[in-house]
Design goal:
320 residues, D-Maltodextrin-Binding Protein, domain 2, alpha/beta, seven-stranded mixed sheet, Arc Repressor Mutant, subunit A
């Protein structure tokens, strides 16, 4: 397609396209059935069929092929699906912004948090912020490195709570709020939990929870194993899922080498214990990634609050 043709099609979509078309496109691709799509979005079967026919005429392309059990996306439809999903996400964000203002609010913040930043920073900071500014709505979703960068590139996020990245996205800056390091942890009932100092040969007798091979903590774990006096027993579930990690560490007598802040709530509650094995590697700090000089009022207030909150927590811990 030439640049002129793309421009003509773009203007045609602006003039005659509807959000309903996007919804039908996504649901048909997801469900593979006209009838199931109609049921899911409260339309008639003929309404879905007519909407699809209109959209295909508008685009000048066939989007679905019929088969015995329903419909399947054509290659051009598969190319369109990521764009359609982003459009619907943007529409949902827009509805959230309007709703936050209409309900006597003071705006909305789109926040992404990594697992470590959510557990080590946001669990306490966000609940305190809600008490401080109850009329600001915070939409939080969890994502890690690559997904965070995609959200930034697409303009889907106002703030990112994460570990300091090696390379900052263009036009963004990082504010460190909390230090982090690796820690060897086990549940409070483990036989080594009360030991003043744990020797390497004691660690060799534990059953260890492993992370996937592409995770930095796994490389540190493998290095630790090389220093032990013999082979170690590992648990036969390998995962990076925080929910699964928490459950296994709480309900099975396992040890793990993990970022300290990933388990901060369990450590603070006394359910998990950090074993004193000597100094381990420090990690990049946790903090806020934010655009330089272009935040809305609600996001600016949250960013300022989190900086003050983290400072107050450090001051409190240093005085105890």
């Amino acid at each position: 397609m030439s640049a002129d043709a793309a421009s003509v099609l773009f203007n045609r979509l602006l003039a005659r396209g509807k959000f309903r078309h996007v919804q039908v496109l996504l649901r048909l691709a997801e469900l593979g059935s006209v009838q199931r799509t109609a049921d899911a979005i409260a339309m008639t079967q003929s309404g879905v069929t007519q909407t699809l026919a209109y959209l295909e005429k508008l685009l000048g392309a066939r989007l679905f092929e019929r088969h015995a059990r329903g419909v399947r996306p054509t290659p051009i439809c598969l190319d369109l699906l990521p764009v359609a999903r982003q459009l619907m996400l943007g529409l949902a964000d827009g509805a959230g912004v309007v709703a936050a203002r209409q309900h006597q609010g003071e705006g909305m913040v789109r926040l992404i948090g990594s697992a470590a930043a959510t557990n080590g920073l946001l669990l306490s900071a966000l609940t305190a912020f809600v008490a401080h500014a109850p009329r600001i709505t915070v939409h939080l979703r969890e994502a890690e490195g690559g997904e965070q960068l995609l959200a930034i590139g697409r303009g889907e996020v106002d703030l990112v709570a994460c570990r300091k990245p090696q390379v900052l996205p263009e036009g963004w800056e990082f504010h460190a709020l909390r230090t982090d390091r690796f820690a060897v942890v086990c549940r409070a009932g483990n036989r080594l939990a009360r030991a003043a100092r744990v020797k390497l040969e004691d660690l060799a007798g534990l059953t260890w929870l492993q992370l996937p091979a592409n995770v930095d903590a796994r490389a540190r774990f493998d290095e630790l194993v090389r220093r032990l006096l013999g082979p170690v027993t590992t648990y036969p579930v390998v995962t990076i899922s925080p929910t699964m990690l928490w459950w296994l560490l709480r309900h099975r007598d396992l040890a793990a080498l993990l970022p300290l802040n990933l388990l901060r709530p369990l450590l603070d509650a006394g359910e998990m214990v950090e074993l004193n094995v000597g100094p381990l590697d420090a990690l990049q700090p946790l903090g806020l990634l934010r655009p330089i000089g272009r935040l809305g009022d609600a996001a600016e207030r949250l960013a300022d609050f989190m900086k003050t909150f983290a400072y107050d927590e450090r001051a409190l811990s240093s005085s105890i």
